[in-house]
Amino acid sequence: MRRRPVVETESVSTTLDHTKAEALERQYDQELNFRTLHGWAGRAVSVVLVSLSLYQYWTAGFGVPPEHWHNAIYLGTVLALIFLLFGAGRSDRQGLIPRLGGIPLTDWLFAAASVAVVAYLPLDFDQLTFRIGVPNTTDLVTGTILILLILEATRRSMGIVLPIIVLVFILYGLFGYLVPGVLAHPGASFGNFISQLYMTQEGIFGIPLKVVATFVFHFVLFGVIATKMGLGQFFIDLATVAAGRYPGGPAKVSVLSSALFGSISGSSIANTVTTGSLTIPAMMKIGYRGSFAGAVEAAASAGGQITPPIMGAAAFIMTEFLGVPYTTIILAAIVPAAMHYLGVLVQVHLEAKRSGIRGMEESDLPRLWPTLRRGWPTVLPLIILVGTIIRGYTPYLAAFNGITACIVIGLINPMNRMTLRELWDAFETGAKYALAVGVAAAAVGIVVGVITLTGAAFRLSFMVTQAAGTLAATIHPFFALLPVELASLNGITLFLTLLFVALTCIAMGAGIPTTALYIVLAAIAAPAVEQLGVPPIAAHLFIFYYGLLADLTPPVCVAAYAAAGIAGANPFRTGLTAFRLGSAKALVPFVFAYSPAMLIVAPGFTVGDFLLVTLSCALGVCALGVALTGYAFAPMGWLARAPLLAASLLMISPGLTPTLLGAAIVVPILTVNYLSARGRPQAASG
């Protein structure tokens, strides 16, 4: 990478500008593209948003009302707010429809209808349970209206891809008898269809909505308030102190701060624009190209949803699907997340060494003790939250304790005191950020309901495993002599199944938010992986990782696009570089699928297996970084990089034999490279 000339300019700011960060999020995240409301309508919507946050906060600490009431309150409010805050499209922008308070009258009607059709269920709950399977006319009308409202709300807040997928499943549920082959099913009457999706807990009001209404909202709110009260700034300052002075300092600050900040944000875009608004200009100042600076931030930020303790909405839904405590998910995610950040950090370091890029100026670096003295109170809420989870309490009680600590410390901390207005804005912003995931849960609930009604999960799993098995039998003779588990017939079958699932995750993740994608794939893809002997937690984390990988995979790589916008760089080039930097994230899921010991909590765990797979994977990730960068101690050409790349893949593969074989290839290549580096100054001097 050719070094940019270093231009001495004024110091790069290391102070977060929350207003600027929120504006950038709205620019690059469709889920935050809200209307700007003023006057009485703006104040009314603000009150409803804050009331929703306060209701969720209260229920986290003091218990929820009956589930059918709690879910109805949440969904009805979310749908109403979406219609009031998100425009319908061109007709809305052109002002073709009469408005009331700046909001089209039709959207007021949709908001009112949302509340009405959702409230109908708990109001008639005692009688409704006797009509499941035999809905009356009112049930059919209200259920149909709710499905249509969910589709439109999803389109407004997330785009067209997810509603199209939901529509495909609706048509499949109603007309599946017309589908040829193994996917055919007898079909469902309209009454049974509406009953399944609207009147039971296996459709719209199923596990996804329940988890979002009960767990996810609280952690979104915690992340927003914690950032507002200074925790995000403290993380950035700590990362700058730790890594800023070393070669490529701002890039290493980007990796470390994004790992820390991502652990509370659970959003790749929020992570990118918040930390990237500081780190990307700093990287460009010391000589990195804009596309590389943006790629570093995007690759690091895309790890937010895999980094404990707050891993985004999908992790909480995973606990319900697997029936395990949230602490189990946290423990399982620690090592794979570390591998992702190790892979990014190694390449960042090698790029800096190859290009001679220095660290940050001393004048730009915060001091350790003043940073700790000023920021230590802001980390207390996170300690309280994690401690509550570790002690075995529910996630929503942990969130309640964390939010309470944020409020108390934020209001009394003399070094970074929040005003009541800022606290109000935090509650309002937290509710806004939770709207899209709420309607996504309802929309995907429709998909899950159809899958349950038709048995599509079994049919799709059968198709995938059959195709993988047939292809594996064909190519097995060509790989039978390789000394890796992958080369066995079962290993190849599993590899092909995982590959098919991974490609599906990446393709679908290009247009579907992670949470929605995970729910769909957990229902239709995870069973196929589990059938081949992969433990459920490994199977679910596998699809979760590959759904997230879409944030870095061109052409739709939202984190890279946001970073490119900050850097003023080419989005596609930024995305390709980000994918290269995050390559470990694309390989590690295969490792824990074959060797679940990496996840710590998987069945059959032993310390020996854990150490072997973790150490060999870490060494392989480092070797992969060298191969992709083309530099270790001195530049290397493809004659060295190609075998090094193959060797790194062997080392990443679980098992002692492939690790030793890979090491046998890596050591001579790195030795020659080291001797070459030592000889270069002598040759120059001679």
From TrEMBL:
Which UniProt keyword terms apply here? Cell inner membrane, Cell membrane, Membrane, Transmembrane, Transmembrane helix, Transport
Entry-linked InterPro entries: DctM, TRAP_DctM-Dct_fused
Q: Which residues cross the membrane?
A: 40-58, 70-88, 100-121, 133-151, 160-183, 203-226, 329-350, 396-412, 433-458, 494-523, 543-566, 586-605, 611-633, 645-670
Q: From the Swiss-Prot or TrEMBL record, state where the protein is found.
A: Cell inner membrane
Tell me yes or no: is Membrane among this UniProt entry's keywords: yes
Which GO-annotated molecular functions does the record name?
transmembrane transporter activity
Residues in a coiled coil are none
Q: How does it sit in the membrane?
A: Multi-pass membrane protein
Which cellular component appears as one GO term in the record? Answer: plasma membrane
Q: Which Pfam families match?
A: DctM
Query: Keyword RNA-binding: yes or no?
Result: no
Which organism's genome codes for this protein?
Elioraea tepida
The protein's name is TRAP transporter permease
Record-annotated TRAP C4-dicarboxylate transport system permease DctM subunit domain positions:
146-602
In terms of PANTHER family, this protein maps to: BLL3936 PROTEIN
Q: What does this protein do?
A: Part of the tripartite ATP-independent periplasmic (TRAP) transport system.
